[in-house]
Amino acid sequence: MFCVVAAAVLASDKVTLQRVPDGGIQPQVVADGKGTVHLLYYNGDAKAGNLFYTKSSDDGKTFGEAIRVNSDPNSAIAVGNIRGAHIAIGKNGRVHVAWMGSDAAPQKGPKNEVGMLYTRLDDAGKAFEPQRNVIQQVYGLDGGGTVAADAQGNVYVLWHGGDPRKETERRVLVARSTDDGKTFQKETAPFAQNTGACGCCGMAAAADSKGNVYALYRSASGGTRDMYLIMSRDKGATFQGGKVADWRVATCPMSACSFTETVGGMLAGWETDGQVYFCRIDASLKPGKPIAAPGDGRGRKFPVMAETKSETILVWTEGMGWQMGGNVAWQVFDKDGKPTAEKGESRGVPEWSLVAVFPRSDGGFTILH
Fold first, then answer.
1. What is the H or E stretch that residue 333 is in?
2. Are 175 and 189 in contact (CB under 8 A)?
3. Quick check: is 131 in a domain?
4. What whole-number distance in Å separates Cα of residue 326 and Cα of residue 341?
5. Can you give the residue range of the structural domain that contains 154?
6. CA torsion sign, 225 to 164 to 49 to 46?
7. What are the tens digits of pLDDT across the range 73-121?
8. How many domains does the chain divide into?
9. Backbone dihedral angles phi then psi of residue 168, each to the nearest 5 degrees
10. How far are the Cα atoms of 177, 226, 228 from residue 217, in angstroms, in the given order?
11. Which residues of the chain have pLDDT under 70?
12. DSSP state of 33
């Protein structure tokens, strides 16, 4: 049985635009390299809705029947764009999902704090296990958390916690699992640098094929909201890294960031002062020179990337704000990081939503919005 997918729009021979199945929002997508596209999306009231997972084996032309991810109804949230769910593919292709709980979620902290919720696809691959709160010590969620997983069975749920009113004292936290998400250790703060964390900015994390773990977050210190890229070679026990972008701004920009692993290595994407950027992280785990989307960077947000053997696409939104939809825009770059003639923009990103992109087997890209 297949769910109905909204008709795709051919923006060019290279790029196809497609609405999320079932009118969903906040798509998160992973192409696993075996020809399967894994899609996570949100449906329902923005303050308390549901998450759904589906997959495609034909480059997104059709998606299988969607499975609800959250075991407790209406326990997810979409308000603010950056508090939604993240997806990772781990050992033997198992799907892992983590998200910030809604007020309707029964999993709460000792003072009724919302939890950082997690679930995984069951052994049969037919349903998701009952959701769990992985926070054991440090609450204070505001911006969304994230999840990463590797092929060896390590799973990482990351978030920033602490008093939202004292952003300079907030810390990036990680709860680690070494048994493919069956159990999690108590969370730790593995990055020693005292940067604070911007309370309502999103995070991103990823684990590469070698087991290295990466995270992006926005700091909050001394009137700045800088972007930090940190990396771990020891299964998330410790992280090293530093600032990749300065931004002197007093208030939270409610920004997002992203990763995607490619044949050429890990790509990291973020936004700064209305512009979007990406960089490649080389084999030594050092970030390369940031590459910006061409043109006037005003109101650009929520960057994501995908890559084929010869090209990279950067996709972002324009004109979005609180309870405001906007446009999706994109630029294709050649293997040297130079922009090609392949670029575009289109209306149609719903309020509270995001965009996602994946490479197709024909060498093109499909953007979900």
1. strand 326-334
2. no
3. yes
4. 23
5. 43-303
6. negative
7. 999 999 999 999 999 999 999 999 999 999 999 999 999 999 999 999 9
8. 1
9. -70, -15
10. 21, 8, 5
11. 1-7
12. S
